[in-house]
Amino acid sequence: MVAAGCAVLFAGCGGAGHREEIAELERAERAMREAADAYAALPQDSLDAVRIWATTQLRDFELLAADSGVVLTRAEGAIVSDVSRVRRLLKDNPDRVARLRASQEQAADQIRLLIEALQTGATTDGAGAPIDSAYVRRQVAAERVAAEAVAASWEETADYGRRALRLAAATRQRSDSLGEALRQRLAKWVLEHGAP
Description:
By secondary structure, the protein is mainly α. It has one domain. The chain contains five helices and no strands. Helix 1 packs antiparallel against helix 4. It is rod-shaped. The relative contact order is 0.21.
């Protein structure tokens, strides 16, 4: 990969022979940007709210069931499982998005540097390696693969977000009802056995 921040030594203007490689790099960068934009189009406030809701619900379920003799039915366990799935889908979302933004910025910078080197006809890179046809093939492939990996990660993150929003919408009412039922059961258990 063209090292980030490395100065490229320029000589002549032979970029005309690299139109295909430049177009390939531009497509990779555009696909990465479009995938990031698709994620950004999701309702970010809702994603944050659902992530917090799922975490709070699970904590409440654990507190209500702990040391109280409350036993969940299979149907109730399925509700808890759905809430847990929502939390897993979004648990590390803020950190994941921050890492993806940093990776996207780095990949875009690398692509920009390589395009600049190709357009200006650079003969050596910042480390002094000769920029020949084999070098160009390697670097174009490496930058394309890096951009594709970032785009795929954005797509996966968006998919997690959409699935979490759908599952939370389908589960929220049942989860709230379960929380109320568990509170009633706990109150009854406390009356019969004393505080846990």
